[in-house]
């Protein structure tokens, strides 16, 4: 007996591949629209769910990111309206400019993200730990200072140096075609 592929499984696979490849750029876009981290995460989740629900309507001849950004813009506006925070919303022109810039630079971001991953791996473990702790939303600079026996001011200075080091490493890797030290 010959079985034919289930179209819903193919559709799910297609969505998963496309979504995963663009997920971080979409998240970054949402976080640029919504200034509160928790609210941005809520809008990101709503957008992701909306993309899944409307996936069958997506035209595969079009690019995914502009479509996803449009959905995110709608969700951001809806969310801010629900919360009575419309005054925090960027203008439509600003959102469209941001979308265009992110779509235009998509390939460059992939290269920079790959370089960042390699550069972070090269950091000493204590610097990596401090960096990760700084990106946890629930950890304050004072708490990080306590973890590492430093003042808040010293934490700020060390994080600035770590970020500068990462920036230089990324630039070097990209300049050398990804083979930088």
Question: What does this protein structure show overall?
Answer:
This protein is mostly helical. It has 2 domains: 7-104, Rna Polymerase Sigma Factor, Chain: A (Orthogonal Bundle), CATH 1.10.1740; 107-175, Arc Repressor Mutant, subunit A. It is 75% helix and 0% strand. It has 8 helices and no strands. Helix 1 packs antiparallel against helix 2, helix 5 crosses helix 8 and helix 7 crosses helix 8. It is globular, with a radius of gyration of 20 Å. The chain starts with 6 loop residues before the first helix and ends in a 6-residue tail after the last helix. The model is unreliable at 1-8 (pLDDT under 50). Residues 114-166 form the RNA polymerase sigma factor 70 region 4 type domain. Belongs to the sigma-70 factor family. ECF subfamily. Residues 20-84 form the RNA polymerase sigma-70 region domain. It comes from Blastopirellula retiformator. Keywords: Sigma factor, Transcription, Transcription regulation.
Structural class designation: mainly alpha
Task: Please give the oligomerization state of what you see.
Answer: single chain
Strand tally: 0
Strand content: under 5%
Quickly name the level 1 CATH class of the largest domain.
Mainly Alpha
Assigned CATH superfamily of the largest domain: RNA polymerase sigma factor, region 2, helix turn helix motif
Q: Which residue ranges are poorly predicted, with pLDDT under 50 across at least 5 consecutive positions?
A: 1-8
Mind describing the biggest β-sheet? none
Principal-axes geometry comes out as globular
| CATH topology group of the largest domain | Rna Polymerase Sigma Factor, Chain: A
CATH architecture name of the largest domain: Orthogonal Bundle
GO molecular function: DNA binding; sigma factor activity
Keywords: Sigma factor, Transcription, Transcription regulation
Domain RNA polymerase sigma factor 70 region 4 type: 114-166
Protein name: ECF RNA polymerase sigma factor SigW
